[in-house]
Design goal:
Blueprint lengths: L1 E13 L5 E7 L3 E7 L19 E7 L6 E9 L10 H17 L7 H16 L7 H13 L13 E3 L4 E3 L8 E2 L4 H8 L13 H18 L8 H9 L1
Parallel strand pairs: 3-5
Antiparallel strand pairs: 1-2, 1-4, 2-3, 4-5, 6-7, 6-8
């Protein structure tokens, strides 16, 4: 079956002397692996550089139900980025988002809400000039809603501690060391209820941003089976500080 779909590049690797395999999160089928034959050949009209992290593509591919590797017939750049490749702060955020998606998304089926959110977020990152420091933090928090692991709001004067393992606010500090401190509870409540296109309310100091992002990534490790520790956020902290 021949399927045409929009997609977001998450990962690529060499397959042979001239071919590559690319993991793409697609609108039509969720996470898919595509074989692009001859793409690394000097005669290829399509260059391997097209498959940089978070590139927005349109793919035409032959899909077979009994295989996880599909063969591409055509591929083209759907919408080029105007600033991400040329702005080290934005490109660092893009690499972080790419790693987060690659390690957290497992669905090999269509999820229109998730796809629309990711597509919108990529375009917003490319166009935004404000609140870039908070962009990865808000994105990481809001993504939990689409992955089905969203933290539950519930901060109050009596419930100021957020338990990362239980995913909810509570009165007492838990025995295990996976929680948000009471003095940051109200701020965490604000974070998990903020949309990616409304970051104006978040004016955080670098140390607070780092602490919040580290806590959220620990939350991902706890709630997503097989989620491996992140690496790119260390560079992100340095670039955005």
């Amino acid at each position: 079956m021949l399927v045409t779909t929009k997609g977001i590049v998450l990962h690529s690797l060499k397959y042979s002397e001239t071919s590559i395999i690319v993991r793409i999160y697609t609108e039509a089928r969720g996470l898919q692996s595509y074989l692009f034959k001859g793409i690394r050949s000097p005669k290829s009209k399509t260059k391997a550089g097209l498959f940089q992290p978070l590139t927005l593509l349109e793919v035409v591919a032959y899909l077979k139900e009994k295989t996880t590797l599909h063969t591409s017939k055509e591929v083209r750049l759907f919408q080029p980025y105007m600033s991400i490749p040329f702005d080290i702060r934005k490109s660092s955020v893009a690499l972080f988002i790419n790693e987060l998606l690659y390690k957290s998304i497992r669905e090999e089926e269509a999820n229109q809400e998730l796809f629309d959110y990711l597509w919108k977020s990529c375009l917003l990152l490319d166009s935004t000039e404000n609140a870039l420091n908070c962009f990865p933090l808000v994105f990481t928090a809001e993504l939990t809603h689409f992955l089905g692991i969203q933290p539950q709001p519930g901060y109050s004067e009596k419930k100021t501690v957020f338990n990362l393992r239980e995913g909810q606010f509570q009165a007492m500090i838990p025995e295990k060391d996976a929680y948000i401190l009471p003095e940051q509870g109200k701020l965490f409540q604000s974070l998990i209820t903020t949309a990616i296109d409304d970051q104006s309310c978040l004016h955080l100091k670098p140390a607070v941003r780092r602490s919040m992002l580290d806590s959220l990534l620990l939350y991902y490790q706890i709630h997503i089976p097989g989620f491996k520790p992140m690496n790119s956020h260390h560079i992100l902290h340095s670039v955005l500080s």
